[in-house]
Amino acid sequence: MDRAAILLSLRLAAWTTLLLLMLGLPLSWWLATSRWRWKFLVEAVVSLPLVLPPTVLGFYLLLALGPRGPLGGAFESLFGSTLPFSFGGLLVASVLYSLPFSVQPFTAALAGVDRRLLEASWCLGVSRFQTFLRVVLPLSATGILSGMVLTFAHTLGEFGVVLMVGGNLEGRTRTASISIYDAVQALDYASAGRTALVLLVFSFLVLALTYGLQRRVWASWPTRS
Amino acid sequence: MADTLVVDLEKRFHGGPTVRATLELPATPGRVAVLFGPSGAGKTTVLRCLAGLDQPEHGRVLFHGEPWCDTSARIFLPPQRRRVGLLFQDYALFPHLTAEQNVQYGLGALPADERRERSRSLFALLHLEGLEGRRPRELSGGQQQRVALARALAIRPRLLLLDEPLSALDAPSREHLRGELRRLLRELGVPTVVVTHDRLEALALGDDLVAMEGGRVCQVGPVADVFNHPAELAVARMTGIETVLPGTVLKREAGLATVEVGPHHLVALEPAHEGSAVFVCLRAEDVTLGLPEAAPTSARNRLPCKVVSLAHEGALVRVGLDAGFPLVARVTRFSTEELGLAEGRALTATFKAPAVRLVPRP
């Protein structure tokens, strides 16, 4: 079993989930409430990672993050290190690749909050931001949690993008999925099997937890007749 | 100017109707104005513009002389800064909070003991004691309504807005709460605007009435005035005047008018407006039924007629008549039996001249 790779995968998944919570919530709120006519284009872009082969996303990311790419150049001049084949680059790739897995459940959860509750809150003198914290978040908590869990689980299972952007540097970018591939290539089936089993059991537990939580959806907002 | 609510706005809906409302209402403590009209009349739009939830394309809203919205001066006060108490049609209570937390929701700026004190007095005022810890789904419709009202009142609103306050309740509680709500609104001493499509609710709750139809204001005035003197046909229909007939004023003499309706000449009070084309409006309650051979009374209008239909409405019976034109009377069940009313029965319908309302006909 490759402990370092599993820990790296967990670390990457945790950071990705956290970043996507911070970036995904505002984006999802905008998607759930905006009436902008070109919104569907943004929705399409957000969902691209669902259908694109990971190699395509990885290829473009490699170009963008590389020293001659727009993002990579800026990052290098700021921090003095390059993004590809580093944990930072891996994180950027994971965030993009898992974007729909957080944004879609978040948006569904936020859109499920009755708009009149927001209006009631505003009329009671509570600001939009406070209303978001005091009404919207508690009422969409299960949906947001399941989005986070899905993101976490999806990042754990990432392979193609990670390989394209991160390569296979032990302790730095070798995640669990790559370690399994490596072990199989080296005919070390025992090690591959142990790592794979850990991922399988962990992913199952995480998903079982998510669906278990979703069963107990708040059944209490005003019914629409 | 000082104690009034002035609304002059235009709000367009994408692919929908345009609401144009111009009205001025007294907004003194405890005074209740009713926005009345069929659904789609634009009542709720006006209410939402008052709350600041909708922004009109053009126009202004002045409350006690303070501009809440003035598109020409680019003023728009957000709902947070208007201090209006809005009661939604389905109450919109926060489902994840208890009744007490709902009521205290808007009091975040107050110290905790003052918050508790204020919610305690509201729970007492609205007879909600003992329900503080319940969640909205554990409350009955009437209780939810009172919690929502308490929540709106907790912020000590300058203006109270009620959107169809009784429509989400079942019929018996509605009847019971109509009177109670009226008493409460008087007691609270907050100027109030109520939206309703229900005639009885409008009569029971309102001091002033704003009759709306198809996105425009048809008539504004004290409730009794609007009900008794509808300015136009649309208002007469809304206020539930059962008989509306086209007629022609033949002559005006000594304050009375003779109006030709179908084969009959009716006597009415002389209308203020010029022109001979009128709609003759008559309430079913104002029509008295008697036997054909009955002695004359002081009522100026006596029409021989035949019973066409009978419909029971609680203690009353709605009698459809044919007097050469359709006529509706409403009498008690006792009278129905005494007169032996049945379809085809010949009768005399009488009504006084002042009961006949004449509305100009375009």
3D architecture notes:
Chain B: One of its GO terms (molecular function) is ATP hydrolysis activity. Chain B: Residues 4-239 form the ABC transporter domain. Chain B: This is Molybdenum ABC transporter ATPase. Chain B: Keywords: ATP-binding, Cell membrane, Ion transport, Iron, Iron transport, Membrane, Molybdenum, Nucleotide-binding, Transport. Chain B: Residues 296-360 form the Mop domain. The complex is a heterodimer of chains A (225) and B (362). In chain A, helix 1 (3-33) runs parallel beside helix 6 (99-111), helix 1 packs across helix 11 (176-185) and helix 6 (99-111) runs antiparallel to helix 9. Chain A has twelve helices and no strands. Chain A has helices at residues 3-33, 39-51, 54-65, 70-79, 87-97, 99-111, 115-123, 128-139, 141-156, 160-166, 176-185, 189-215. By secondary structure, chain A is an all-alpha fold. The longest helix of chain A is centred in the N-terminal third of the chain and has 31 residues, at 3-33. Chain B has a six-stranded mixed beta sheet with strand order 7-8-9-3-10-11, sandwiched between helices. A five-stranded antiparallel beta sheet of chain B has the order 2-1-4-5-6, covered by helices on one side. Chain B folds into two domains: 4-237, P-loop containing nucleotide triphosphate hydrolases (Rossmann fold, 3-Layer(aba) Sandwich); 241-360, OB fold (Dihydrolipoamide Acetyltransferase, E2P) (Beta Barrel), CATH 2.40.50. Chain B has 362 residues and is of the alpha+beta class. Chain B starts with a strand and ends with a strand. In chain B, helix 3 crosses helix 4 (141-154). The longest helix of chain B has 18 residues, at 171-188. Chain B is globular. The mean pLDDT of chain B is 87. The interface between A and B is medium-sized, with 22 and 31 residues.
